[in-house]
Amino acid sequence: MIAAIYLFAGYQELSAQTKDSLKEKQIEEVVMIGYGTAKKRDLTGSIAKVGGDVVADKPNANPINALQGQVAGLSVVNSGQPGSQADVRIRGTVTINQTQPVYIVDGVFANNIDFLNPSDIESMEVLKDPSSLAIFGNRGANGAIIVTTKRAKSGKTTINLSSSIGVKSLDNRPDLVGAEGFKTLYNEDLANQGLPAYNLFNLFNADTNWIDTIKKEGGIINQNNLTISNGTDKNKVSFSFGYQTEDGSIKYEKFDRLTMKFNDDVKISDKVRAGFGITGSYSKLPQLRSFSSALNATPVVAPINLTPGDYFGLYNSLPQQIGAAQIGNPLAVVEGMRNTQYNKDFQFNPNAYFEFDFLKNFTFRSNYFVTYRNGTGRGYTPVFDVYVAESNSSTPYSGNLLTGINQFENRDVTFQQNQLLTYKNKFGAHDLTLMAGFETINREYSSMSGSAKGSLSNPLGQIPNNPRFWYLHSDFVDSTTKVVNTSAYKQRQASYFGRMLYSFNNKYMVNASVRNDGSSQLAPGNRFDWFWSVGGAWEISKENFMSEVPFINYLKIKGSYGDLGNQYTPYSYFGYPIYVEGGTGVFNGNLYPAFVKAYEEATDLKWEHLKSYEFGFESMMISRKLSFDATYYNKKTEGLLNYVIGNPNYFMNAGSIEAKGFEFVLGWKDRISQDFTYSINGNLTTTETKVLNTLEDGYKVFYGPAIYKEGLPVGAFYGYIVDGLYQSYADILGSPASTIGDVAPGDFKYRDVNGDGKITPDDRTIIGDPTPDFTYGFSVGADYKGFFLNADFYGVYGNEIFRNWGNGNSFAPFNYREERLDRWTGAGTSNWEPRSYTASAYNRENSTYMIEDGSFFRIRNVQLGYNFNKGLIEGLGIQALKVYFNVQNPKTWDNVNGFTPEFGGSATEFGVNNSGYPNPRITSFGINVTF
After folding, report:
1. CA dihedral 34, 35, 36, 38 (to 10 degrees)
2. Is 818 helix (H, G, I), strand (E, B) or coil?
3. Which residues form the TonB-dependent receptor plug domain (predicted)?
4. Rounded to the nearest 5°, which phi and psi values hold at 502?
5. How confident is the model at residue 459, as a pLDDT?
6. What is the dihedral of CA 381, 383, 385, 386, to 10 degrees?
7. Do residues 703 and 720 make contact, with C-beta atoms less than 8 angstroms apart?
């Protein structure tokens, strides 16, 4: 920040008064706070602002992906799959139904921001504390991210062009055994079962890495953007257009997206303003695939039959005894079914506002927003043969004799309006801003999906592999096989809210918010509730006694408390339950379906309430070169909305969850000379979650390998603790007896946790926590005569990952992880990798054997570039020109056997390694020019 002072002054000597005035301006950053803006110094809560330049030049289709490691308290778990949505959590997991924060894009609520062009973003504010979030009431419990898009500014017409192209490559990949290792482990498995060795390896003698057969080599990501803007004192107009295309890490995965944005802001008079805007996107979504089958398929099979004869060129089936019933040839899936699913997504967001000032201190603003989202898709199931080596014959792939088609469409339309009245006044030492508002949100959703098959008796033949025939009404479809499903719901919300921002002497600040929300998603009679917050701050650095501490330039202590709400549940109508098929009945000799309630009416269902507080400080020191902020937060959700499985199923409010921890933000900015500036910034967040209570004592629910139980972390992994392997029968006799399965030397030795002298299900305990002890990120940047270098780093520490593949947890003979080569083969050969034996379920119990250390450190992004000197380019009619070279995810150090060490999930089950999808390294080159 001191650098900005030097630039402003032109290195001239400044008076003390001028210096103080400039310093004051440095910390009067304006941030979005929901339904308005405010000076950050006047706020009592925690709001982190990220400039649009942070996300604009990174190779990400979804701008939220670029925030990983940038903001304390913000967890972003990315997936490298094109078009995917990141798992985003703010200050931990505080509910059992939904984890994502609410997004507010230019005032309109959104579930995600995948429709936004990163180049259109002016800034993103991450709201974390109750005094910032209570104004959103029922949507604020999980935090909020406010996105402000670019608008035209006063001045001449400007045209901005930006383009980048990048190439993908895989960094991490799972370690799997090759053909020889597979043969050894598989035959050992058979021998341990008392069975003869497999005698057909002469037919299956290839050595195939299935990952290599289906991965996309050198996938391309290309981004192109055009923005035209013109601004005068009376009218400001901007238009932008973007096109992006991205290849996935698997063949034929391709994502294409067009985006557009238009804004027109009109100053009708000195006191009257109006505006209109449109944001839109059109996407061709990729036909998504998985690496799961490539990890499990045996490596001894060649992808394609190259033996001369009638079956030459067919895809090989996996061996009938070794996985053919469970796994298809991975290449056959990718190649044989390529380009057989066409999904499209269209989003259209018009908005308008009218604003006027009156009575000197009052402003009234009327906002209107529409969100229209339409998703469509058509797909095809082909029929083709694969070669069966054992019988030297062919058979239809997956036993499928009939072609098929699927078709779907869904529409999601939301109308939102709010009316805002704001009063601003400064009298004497008092600075007061009051805001009152009324808002309604009406959402209507409908969907249709259907499927059908062809018929061998159809005189036209099977359904052709041609998209023009992939419709339910196609003449090739057998009408008797049509299956159609529909669904629809409406959601209504009405809210009244108000906020006060007050400061005295610019030293003592009070922020308060109150909101009354009504929602159709809750039970009649309980649909309305109150949410509120209050926060205070004291800018100590303005006190006279602080003059004795000259190295502290700015110090503010702050704290806030609030009550926020949550309404996320799987259904929308609790007073009017839906009916589902629950059996059949016979009438007059005909069979009819019987319908039962999906759940009982919830006559007393209420809001979840999040009671949250924080306290901390913000500071700047050493001529504002050094900044340091620290915050403690505590969030407790009460009256959780539980969907209880019973007879019948029902909803109820019960239980509570707590998340707490610390946030630290440290920064240093300095100018060494007129030509050289540099900066270092870092953040660290600790998070601890705990289930405080549930429905009743002893209540527990399993979500895959995770358990929901009082006293445990949210999403805690549950199972047996492995204390090694039994080395001999004497070892077994001298250990607690197993009641969960027969054991032999080479099997796991589970710990007798409760000390009752035997191994029972009661010995299961917490074996891992998917929430990291802390996450951290830091960045360094330098600028010398237009050359710049920026590097971002990110890491997590202290979390566990549950490995859900390659554990021998299936009777099917899947491929093996490389670690299995270190298996037990006799006393003393191993005390961790068990013998090769799949006939018993004993070794497949969830245990610490499946737990991996989730800690990792990543070089997140490195960018080197050059901003051309204006004197060199102004003769070409160019205002600014930047070229840069960027590498994203160049290197990750981790302890997880998989493509990536990070895994999202639901509120109650996350951090599960299901083989994953690569977060690829992307090497890109870009250019940005402004005329």
Report:
1. -40
2. helix
3. 39-144
4. -135, 140
5. 86
6. 10
7. no
